[in-house]
Design a protein that fits this description.
Elements lengths: L44 E5 L14 E8 L2 E6 L1
Antiparallel strand pairs: 1-2, 2-3
Length: 80
């Protein structure tokens, strides 16, 4: 069975850090990170995205949790 964002059991990867290749739009179901090395591809995953301001400082109030699946270098079926 293929991985799905709605999988009940998800794998965890701690302290993963990357940037996004482009901003996330309001209706984007596909997100392209700069790197996905060592992320699980056989199950859905929850991603925590810390947004930054113009100075590069994390803005915790704008943190997002996104469920999705890694496929072909992208996070697909992304659900906010």
């Amino acid at each position: 069975m293929a991985a799905s964002a709605s999988d009940r059991f998800k794998k965890l990867t701690n302290n993963f850090s990357t940037t996004l290749s482009s901003p996330i739009g309001s209706a984007d179901a596909t997100i392209t990170p700069a790197a996905i090395t060592n992320l699980p591809t056989d199950t859905g995953t929850v991603f925590v995205i810390d947004r930054v301001d113009a100075s590069g400082n994390k803005t915790a109030a704008k943190r997002e949790y996104i469920k999705g699946v890694i496929s072909g270098g992208n996070i697909i079926n992304a659900v906010r």
